[in-house]
Structure to design on (105 residues):
């Protein structure tokens, strides 16, 4: 899958959401199943990177953050980060795929 760049001007960097702390507003969290999870392009550390969405956090003030599995370096290690939704530095690759019924008894 080809990244959105270079024909686009480089956007601003995606902003990480800090971890939740006692006293912070509580978010409604939706955890996506491994099979068919949504995917995003996220512009971070100077380039577009594909990421698998693991969870969506919706806050009472209307903000949304996405917890993603993303490769940030050339080691191919997967890192888990949470970024605030920003259409200027994120693009949808794939929306959630419909769940398929299990064929197991």
């Amino acid at each position: 899958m080809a990244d959105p760049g270079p024909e686009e001007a480089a956007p601003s960097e995606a902003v990480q959401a800090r971890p939740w702390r006692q006293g912070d507003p509580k978010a409604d969290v939706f955890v996506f199943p491994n099979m068919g999870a949504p995917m995003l392009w996220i512009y971070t550390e100077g380039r577009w990177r594909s990421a698998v969405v693991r969870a969506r956090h919706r806050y009472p003030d209307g903000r949304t953050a996405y917890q993603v599995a993303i490769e940030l370096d050339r080691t191919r290690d997967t890192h888990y980060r949470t970024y605030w939704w920003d259409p200027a530095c994120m693009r949808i690759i794939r929306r959630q795929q419909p769940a398929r019924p299990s064929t197991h008894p």
